[in-house]
Amino acid sequence: MSFLTSNTGADSILPAEFAALITDPVTAESVAFHPDVATTITTGSHEFHIPVLREDAGAEWVPEGGEITPDDPTLDEVTVTPAKVAGLTIVSRELAADSTPDAQNIVGASLARAIITQVDRAFLGALPAPAPRGLGSIDPQYLLAEGDNVHDALISAVSVAETNGSVVSAFLVNPSDANKLALFKDAANSNRPLLADARVIMGRPVIVNKHVPEGTIWAVDKTKIFSVLREGTTLAISDGPFFTSDRVAIRATLRIGFGFPQPLGLVRITQDPSDVTTP
To answer: With b meaning 16 or more CB within 10 Å and e meaning fewer, what string describes 103-135?
Structure first.
């Protein structure tokens, strides 16, 4: 972690461990770093290369003493270049000069919330550059679900993923769609819910996040998604623009990227027929 400071008298709130006040909440609370959603990688490099096995080496039945035909696997790689996301908070000089853990947590939580929002928006959507490429920008397997068929589509998504060599580790759902799942009944004119626990389907957790587009449910395999966090949270402190009000600006900068080496191992369940034909 590096510091860029002016003569603010704010150093008390920024101990050497301040980066943990930002990176720990981001990796703990952002859906992109959820252990059932993605594999988290920390790197000190400008780029991270994910090896991809496109085709296995061949094997064959041979007679005793017969020649074995050599064959090499087909390998490829996906390159992830973490992009910069930054959060800015303005605090009083008194708070900035307070070295107590509570004061540090107030500043860290404020910056972390802002960054978590941007990370989740990028991961679950298709934001323009310089944001990293998210789930909304890949071409996965698609399943169309309409009305009460949503539950059936969730079950089918597990099978579709397995056909493509994946194991669904979690479902990602918008709060509105999570509510609909919870309200499904087990029969017509029944008040009994179809799901005993609407946050677990076929043993997989249902993770709810408002940045999942409404009408879309993702069935993901955590081994097919990589969330890459570049080492070195940068903090910049300045009272320049706020000199007359005796306040201090504190900025945190992280670099994060996402890799999807096998997009066909992920399943997007949609209620919009036009999505199924999206290239």
So the answer is: bbebbbebbbebbbebbbbbbbeebeeebbbbb
CA angle 137, 139, 144 (to 5 degrees): 110
- Both structure tokens of 6: 């002016």
* Residue reference for tokens 């199924």: 276
Partner residues linked to 170 by β-bridges: 220
Region 225-229: mean pLDDT is: 96
DSSP, residue by residue, 120-184: HHHHHS-PPTTSPP-GGGS--EEEE--TTHHHHHHHHHHHHHHHTT----EEEE-HHHHHHHHH-
pTM: 0.82
For residues 142 and 135, what is the distance between their CA atoms, to the nearest angstrom?
13
- Give the residue among 124, 115, 120 at the shortest CA–CA distance from 233: 115
Tokens of 130: 């310089």
Number of neighbours of residue 14 by Cβ within 10 angstroms: 22
Question: Using one digit for the tens of pLDDT, what is the confidence trace for 12-24?
Answer: 455 445 667 778 8
